[in-house]
């Protein structure tokens, strides 16, 4: 049983004068209908609530007023709801509207007639045919052409019996007996209160069919009200009955704006709810115009509690069409919404293919299908999920995950613009069912994050056991297309499942792929690890514990001899670095790791750092710092100072000098330095980073730690993709990009704006390159939804309210490496060569393997000597 917010169209549509009653109709079956009409009546000082109980018994309906005991009987499941006398040539359209109060399997028992000019009844003049379900409204017109011109659709029936004038009474017959009437059959309506000459009459809400005319149950336009009008919508107050229905495609037209701005009434199916105060509707398949240039859907702003409506409700909406931020809508906040019936089959979705004909950020790209139920036959890949928490949305891309322009191409403004234009045709947003920011943590109780769901939207939602990753796919996406906040997006349909195929799960494991070698080095951005609370990192001891556990878990799994850390708190006492070392040693064993004690480096809140295993490597000499004091081209108010340290591998005695770096980000500008965003794909501060690269190469060429070694490695977050000027500057100065060399074009460590690439590097000079065994970028972070990070469900300390997470589906935290940062770690394996005194023993069967290994080592040493000579020939600018 469903309680409708307003009654079925015939007896509960708000009148044109707004004289609606507070009514509810409850449908339980074909043989029982409970009708409750509450209204206040003053009896002395007391208000008495009237309750009408309606019981269907066979073909009759018995209505009893418990206060007066009055009972009336009606035998009709059909009712006259409106009549119209038109202004077009010949006085057309002339029409009668009838609506079904219940399912009627055989309409032939009903007919119409008219009493012209007070001449009395002529009996039934036209018999209906077919069937109707509760809520259906039928139109009987004197002809079709004028009716269609005026109302935008053809009538249900045509007959000369509908050739009524504004002074004629109209009768509804059932089995030859009058069961409903408009006007008095024996009175000429001219000059009477019920005259509707060149106008309309419409039945008020709450009245039932009766063979006795009651003028108080009707609203009249007044005579000559529609003179000079050519369409129903052309009059400031058009006919409010189903005679006045306007099709959505008529409102939408083929242009970018609605064609009508005066009040309309439409009847269509709710396809998607948009909280808190709107929903999408679309014409039934039988009512479309077949024109691919006109949309059959539109959004309705009702300003009401949309929880009373359900997808699949057929509704009549009265309101005013308009454009709202390039999206057509009907504003029904001062109009009405009436449920005609529920559980109606949804319209057939329209196929939409990507790439689109234009940008999915341009409002005109999908104008012809705006507000409509659509289906994407393409397989779409998850490419961005940063806004899942705040806006409930995911960016999907046709084909494959896009890489950053400068991952594959050299900076170029024209080519970059073309690249982005093409990308914008391939992307679409999957949004949630509301426009409330941070909806899952709004209101009195938390709610799940919307995707993925199981068993139909909105069931399920994100959880530790129900997750997705970047690179996963979705096929056959269905939803309603809306242009909002500058982009086209798909709104979900209740009951449709939005789940993803785990394509990317096999690319992640509990540990990075083995890099072999006798020495392992990692570059690891630890995403603002601060032991000082309420700064850039954790807001409470609990969050700090969670953040530490994730980072420690990742470092434990990597099991590196040396780790260069980026984005760690900058302090005199190295507190954050020490805290991580202690946390790691608590897990892997006391004394396993130590750190390079640097104290504060530069003036930024964050710095870079080294931790290492003292059992496998030792420090050689003091560390060195590259900042503006060393080279004025290295601007340390933009770039964080670089930290350089030489390590000696205890097993071989070989040395390696490593520089860990964090160059200027792409976000804030460097306009004050004369280094603007050139629009070439490098974003802000490209030359500030390039100059830092040149300064770094020059500084390392001077052997700043006096290592007396030719093995130099650059690691860290350089904030530049592989084809950008900052990286090219290092390549031309003798360094090799190890990700490109060993992983290839598919390498990535970071996600931004739905595009992947790598900002995190290992760059080896020539002599060191010959000793690299393998390289791996461990995709444990960039592919993970940020909600799986260390944040908890409580608002603590100085934490902004939107930063806490929803625990509606349980805590999303696990003490594992996943989403320990927003950058992926780069892990590099080395076989450092001791090339002194290599002696190959005499041949013999027993030592063939040893001979082979030594010959291979000797060949590598020869290659290393050649590389060393070439390295020393380099000229650094």
TrEMBL record:
Gene3D superfamilies to which the protein is assigned, alphabetical: Endonuclease/exonuclease/phosphatase
The keyword Signal belongs to this UniProt entry's keyword annotation: yes
Protein name: Endonuclease/exonuclease/phosphatase domain-containing protein
InterPro entries attached to this UniProt entry: Endo/exonu/phosph_ase_sf (IPR036691), Endo/exonuclease/phosphatase (IPR005135), ExeM-like (IPR047971)
Stored Pfam families: Exo_endo_phos (PF03372)
PANTHER family linked: ENDONUCLEASE/EXONUCLEASE/PHOSPHATASE FAMILY PROTEIN (AFU_ORTHOLOGUE AFUA_3G09210), ENDONUCLEASE_EXONUCLEASE_PHOSPHATASE FAMILY PROTEIN (AFU_ORTHOLOGUE AFUA_3G09210)
Signal peptide: 1-18
Species of provenance: Thalassiosira oceanica
SUPFAM superfamilies: DNase I-like
Keywords from the UniProt entry: Signal
């Amino acid at each position: 049983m469903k309680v409708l917010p307003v009654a079925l169209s015939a007896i509960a549509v708000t009148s044109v004068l707004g004289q609606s009653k507070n009514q509810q109709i409850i449908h339980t079956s074909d043989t029982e209908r409970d009708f409750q009409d509450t209204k206040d009546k003053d009896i002395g000082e007391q208000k008495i609530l009237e309750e009408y109980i309606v019981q269907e018994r066979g073909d009759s309906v018995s209505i009893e007023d418990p206060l007066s005991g009055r009972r009336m009987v009606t035998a009709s499941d059909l009712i006259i709801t409106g009549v119209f006398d038109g202004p077009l040539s010949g006085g057309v359209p002339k029409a009668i509207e009838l609506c079904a109060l219940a399912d009627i399997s055989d309409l032939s028992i009903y007919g119409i007639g008219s009493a012209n000019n007070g001449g009395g009844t002529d009996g039934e003049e036209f018999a209906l045919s077919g069937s109707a379900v509760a809520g259906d409204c039928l139109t009987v017109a004197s002809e079709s052409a004028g009716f269609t011109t005026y109302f935008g659709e053809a009538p249900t029936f045509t007959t000369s019996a509908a050739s009524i004038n504004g002074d004629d009474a109209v009768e509804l017959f059932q089995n030859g007996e009058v069961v409903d009437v408009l006007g008095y059959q024996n009175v000429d309506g001219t000059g009477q209160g019920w005259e509707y000459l060149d106008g309309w009459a419409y039945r008020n809400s709450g009245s039932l069919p009766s063979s006795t005319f009651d003028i108080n149950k009707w609203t009249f336009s007044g005579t000559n009200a529609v003179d000079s009008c050519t369409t129903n919508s052309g009059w400031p107050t058009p006919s409010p009955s189903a005679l006045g229905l306007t099709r959505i495609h008529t409102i939408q037209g083929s242009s970018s704006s609605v064609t009508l701005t005066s009040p309309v009434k439409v009847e269509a199916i709710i396809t998607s709810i948009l909280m808190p105060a709107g929903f999408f509707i679309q014409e039934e398949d039988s009512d479309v115009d077949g024109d691919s240039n006109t949309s059959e859907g539109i959004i309705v702003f009702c300003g009401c509690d949309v929880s009373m409506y359900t997808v699949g409700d057929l509704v009549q909406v009265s309101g005013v069409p308009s454009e709202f931020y390039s999206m057509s809508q009907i504003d029904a906040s001062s109009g009405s919404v009436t449920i005609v019936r529920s559980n109606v089959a949804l319209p057939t979705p329209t196929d939409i293919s990507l790439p689109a004909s234009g940008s999915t950020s341009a409002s005109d790209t999908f104008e012809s299908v705006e507000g409509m139920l659509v289906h994407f036959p393409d397989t779409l890949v998850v490419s961005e999920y940063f806004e899942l928490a705040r806006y409930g949305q995911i960016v999907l891309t046709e084909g494959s995950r896009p890489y950053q322009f400068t991952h594959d191409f050299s900076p170029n403004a024209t080519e970059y613009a073309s690249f982005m234009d093409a990308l914008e045709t391939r992307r679409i947003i999957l949004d949630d069912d509301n426009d409330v920011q941070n909806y899952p943590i709004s209101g009195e109780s938390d709610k799940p994050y919307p995707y993925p769901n199981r068993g139909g939207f909105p069931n399920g939602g994100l959880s530790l056991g129900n997750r997705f990753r970047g690179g996963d796919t979705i096929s056959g996406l269905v939803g309603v297309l809306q242009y909002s906040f500058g982009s086209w997006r798909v709104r979900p349909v209740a009951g449709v499942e939005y789940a993803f195929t785990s394509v990317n799960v096999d690319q992640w494991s509990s540990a990075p792929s083995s890099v072999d070698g006798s020495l392992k080095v990692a570059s690891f951005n630890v995403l603002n690890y601060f032991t000082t609370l309420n700064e850039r990192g954790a807001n409470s001891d609990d969050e700090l514990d969670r953040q530490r556990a994730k980072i420690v878990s990742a470092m434990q799994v990597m099991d590196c001899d040396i780790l260069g850390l980026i984005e760690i708190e900058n302090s005199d006492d190295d507190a954050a670095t020490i805290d991580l070392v202690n946390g790691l040693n608590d897990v892997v064993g006391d004394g396993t790791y130590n750190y390079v004690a640097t104290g504060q480096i530069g003036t930024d809140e964050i710095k870079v750092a080294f931790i290492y295993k003292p059992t496998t490597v030792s420090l050689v000499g003091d560390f060195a710092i590259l900042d503006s004091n060393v080279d004025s081209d290295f601007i340390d108010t933009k770039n964080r100072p670089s930290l350089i340290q030489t390590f000696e591998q205890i097993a071989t005695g070989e040395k390696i000098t490593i520089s860990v770096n964090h160059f200027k980000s792409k976000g804030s500008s460097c306009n004050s330095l004369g280094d603007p965003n050139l629009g070439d794909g490098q974003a802000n501060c490209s030359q500030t980073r390039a100059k830092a690269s040149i300064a770094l190469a020059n500084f390392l060429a001077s052997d700043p730690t006096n290592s007396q070694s030719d093995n130099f490695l650059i690691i860290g977050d350089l904030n530049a993709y592989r084809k950008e000027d900052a990286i090219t500057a290092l390549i031309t100065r003798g360094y090799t990009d190890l990700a490109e060399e060993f992983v290839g074009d598919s390498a990535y460590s970071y996600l931004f704006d739905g595009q992947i690439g790598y900002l995190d590097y290992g760059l080896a000079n020539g002599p060191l390159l010959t000793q690299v065994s393998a390289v791996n970028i461990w995709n444990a972070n960039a592919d993970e939804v940020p909600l799986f990070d260390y944040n908890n469900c409580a608002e603590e300390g100085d934490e902004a309210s939107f930063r806490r997470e929803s625990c509606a589906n349980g805590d999303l935290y696990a003490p594992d490496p996943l989403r320990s940062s927003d950058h992926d770690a780069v892990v590099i394996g080395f076989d450092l060569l001791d090339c002194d005194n290599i002696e190959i023993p005499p041949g013999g069967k027993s030592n063939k393997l040893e001979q082979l290994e030594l010959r291979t080592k000797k060949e590598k040493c020869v290659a290393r000597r050649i590389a060393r000579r070439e390295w020393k020939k380099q000229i650094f600018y």
